[in-house]
Amino acid sequence: MSDTGLIEDQQSIQADMQDSNKTSTTKFTDVADALGHGNGLDHYGNRLKARMPVDRYASDYNMNHPKRGLALIFNHEHFEIPQLKSRAGTNVDCENLASTLKHLDFDVRVYKDMKLRDMQKEVEKVAKMDHSDNDCILITILSHGELGYLYAKDCQYKLDIIWSYFTANHCPTLAGKPKLFFIQACQGDQLDAGVTLSDRTETDSAGSMSYKIPAHADFLIAYSTIPGFYSWRNTQKGSWFMQSLCQELNQHGKKYDILTLLTFVAQRVAYDFESNTPDIPMMHQQKQIPCVTTMLTRLLRFTDK
Question: Among 65, 144, 196, 264, whose CB has the most other CB atoms within 10 angstroms?
């Protein structure tokens, strides 16, 4: 069982029309490529507004607030779902990541084996907090997953159930600030045997002027593996992705921007790890590559506090 882990906006521009007698020009208009709903208004019909945390065209996010921000770690080891095995090694991931994030000045909160409703209640409570003094927020989920889904203790869910609480229209004090998600979970049951260029492992399966931003801007979601594939976890040392993420953040977390860091995390996972399960030939000597989805609009560096 695997570990359960914009609208393309095309411009439709009306061309200038000419006939033999005159030239008529119509206005340029942008139209969506799909039907949708939502008008960017609050419950009272007012246009949603949030405080601008940085100049409009600043190259870097403002990481000079009084606090770095909250880091939530949802660590799932045991499950009520019969077909999901306990995730040996996940506590090592959790402890290492908590230590790493504290070193980067995060206020770390760890949650163990939570049911989905309890996760939602906690995330909703955090989203309603005042984050005005915080640089960003970071959320990590360590669990089983499959393509499109993650597992809480009691059931599966889609990740957007969690991150949607933090969009700019729902959490205005985080508008224009980084919202980082790290997901250690399988995204399917395919294996990557790699191309050729002794620990026991198992898989995690089952400006000065105001400006408007998209509600879904400034998110980053880093998955331990690509869609459809297994994510590997060492039962004693923890998952390949979390080992690599912690190592890179510990060594270079205040030197490089986050996308550079995640590139080197991918390098570590891709080149330094290979599954070792000789008793299960089909699973032996398999590889893994992380996958990053980014809606960040600036460079993010964890500068000193």
Answer: 144
pLDDT, mean of each 10-residue run, the chain (305 residues): 38 33 53 52 56 87 97 98 96 98 98 98 98 98 96 97 96 97 95 67 58 90 97 97 98 98 98 95 96 98 96
Residues 220/257, Cβ–Cβ less than 8 Å: no
**Catalytic annotation, pick one of 94, 136, 171, 186:** 186
Q: Are 220 and 138 in contact (CB under 8 A)?
A: no
Residue keyed to tokens 């490529």: 33
Q: Which of 76, 144, 171, 246 is catalytic?
A: 144
Active site includes 291?
no
Residues 6+ apart with CB under 8 A from 179: 136, 137, 139, 163, 166, 218, 219, 220
- Helices 240-252 & 90-103, crossing angle to 10 degrees? 20
| Catalytic (active site) residue 144 | yes
